[in-house]
Design goal:
GO terms for molecular function: RNA binding. This protein is mainly alpha-helical. The chain has 21 helices and 11 strands. The chain has a 3-stranded antiparallel sheet with strand order 1-3-2. Strands 4-6-5 form a 3-stranded antiparallel sheet. Strands 7-9-8 form a 3-stranded antiparallel sheet. Strand 10 (about 360) and strand 11 (about 365) form a beta hairpin. The longest helix has 25 residues, at about 60-85. It is globular and about 75 Å long. The relative contact order is 0.12.
């Protein structure tokens, strides 16, 4: 009886220790082979979208490019805020300091402006003696040139919108989704009136926020990836079976290829799928290979959308607005991470940007277009930073001379209200000599591209 009671107490003690070992006052027993009943279970490492995003192979050149483009977008926001003011051609730095949170700067506005003398002209107000700022003539000329090119390319913009409508599930798109990627598609600011309202034989506005395709064009039924396949078939003498459903895949430097990855990639390349312009039918996920075919069609649609953009990149959050219209019931971020040889997600800045990897080489677009060339000139002007040039030195000498003339005018019998016209004319004369074509190339930032 005593032995049975002892064995019962021992089993009860082991059960309590296994359930909650902290409730007992017994000393902590180290892990070993004879006390397996109290061993702890090790948790598996988390495999979430965030961990996969952090563990991806980094492309330093594309990351650097998105960092520079974020700075350019910040300057364009400042230019827009300055242009909306109607009180004069310049703004005081004290007022501009209130825009720090609006444009998303992590540094002071004064420090940011002084770091880019080729973009901002900073001078001392002759009356109030405070620092004022205005956009330089070179940068303003490049912005005007971009607006002119966008206006001249209205027909190309209409073709891009028509292609997007042909890819949609029912020939309709939300205008809000187009508005979010307006700059990426090269559309004018008033594209609803200048493009959608002008080409009525192609588009019809169902209501205020939905545009519908009137008639399809068979000439637009060939995707960019299909043109690449034809080129590969002709130039590299590959078999039609290998190139019929393939995609251009370029892995970044340092990408780790695991065991069995090449075989899976080869099978995925040969997997048939519905092409973006072929039809609006949705592949059944439960069918044989349905899930892979469905995801491959979504990859093809995102690939074609990125190919239609000016710089071959779009923010992931804005890309998700096309999911419903394109019939892509997938997690866009997960899909992009599954295909690192086709897409690259850059996390630089406050947003995530997806870039079409095949379109870039050493941080530069392989096949540039006129709008991209102008934006690249803007970026080169921003990347000059505080580097002084002969043109900038000449401008500073002229400004100093104009300031001395204004002081002499104030020393005489000039009224207080007459200073506005001469100082504005002096700065206009300075910036009239700025030629956007004379911008010094700062392409050494992109490895000599």
């Amino acid at each position: 009886m005593n032995l049975s009671k002892i064995s019962k107490h021992r089993c009860l003690l082991q059960f309590r220790i296994h359930i909650n070992p902290q409730e007992t006052n017994l000393p902590k027993i180290p892990f070993g082979p004879f006390n397996l009943f109290i061993q702890r279970r090790w948790k598996k490492p988390a495999n979430t979208a965030q961990t996969r995003l952090e563990s991806r192979t980094i492309d330093s050149k594309l990351n650097r490019l998105t960092t520079y483009l974020k700075k350019l977008k910040t300057i364009l926001k400042i230019y827009e805020l300055m242009s909306n003011r109607k009180r004069g051609p310049f703004v005081s730095l004290q007022l501009m300091s209130r825009w720090t949170n609006i444009v998303g700067l992590n540094v002071g506005m004064g420090e940011f402006v002084h770091k880019h003398p080729h973009v901002f002209d900073v001078f001392t107000h002759p009356v109030n003696r405070n620092l004022c700022c205005r956009i330089s003539g070179k940068f303003k000329g490049l912005v005007s040139e971009e607006e002119r090119l966008v206006k001249d390319c209205e027909l190309e913009c209409a073709k891009r919108v028509k292609r997007l409508l042909m890819m949609s599930k029912n020939g309709r798109l939300h205008v809000h989704a187009l508005r979010l990627i307006r700059r990426e598609l090269g559309l004018p600011e008033d594209f609803r009136e200048s493009v959608l309202g002008k080409y009525k034989e192609d588009f019809r506005l169902v209501d205020l926020e939905i545009v519908e395709l009137v008639d399809k064009d068979e000439n637009f039924g060939v995707a960019e990836v299909e043109k690449w396949r034809e080129k590969e078939y002709r130039e590299k003498w590959l078999s039609e079976f290998e190139t019929k459903f393939a995609f251009p895949i370029n892995f970044p430097t340092g990408f780790k290829i695991e065991r069995g990855f090449r075989e899976k990639l080869k099978n995925w390349k040969m997997l048939p799928y519905l092409k973006p312009y072929e039809g609006n039918e949705v592949v059944q996920v439960g069918a044989c290979g349905g899930k892979n075919r469905y995801e491959k069609r979504a990859v093809a649609m995102i690939h074609e959308l990125l190919s239609l953009t000016v710089e071959k990149m779009v923010e992931v959050e804005r890309l998700a607005h096309f999911k419903k219209d394109f019939g892509m019931e997938v997690n866009v971020r997960e899909l992009l991470l599954k295909n690192p040889g086709i897409f690259y997600i850059s996390t630089k800045g406050s947003t995530h940007t997806v870039i079409l990897r095949e379109a870039y080489s050493k941080g530069c677009l392989i096949e540039p277009n006129p709008i991209y060339v102008v934006r690249r000139k803007m970026l080169d002007l921003v990347l000059l930073g505080c580097r002084n040039t002969r043109e900038l030195q000449a401008e500073e000498e002229i400004k100093n001379g104009s300031d001395s003339l204004i002081r002499k005018a104030f020393a005489g019998n000039t009224t207080v209200g007459e200073w506005v016209v001469p100082i504005s004319e002096s700065f206009d004369n300075v910036n009239d000599h700025d030629d956007p074509a004379e911008i010094i190339d700062a392409s050494e930032e992109f490895d000599g591209c």
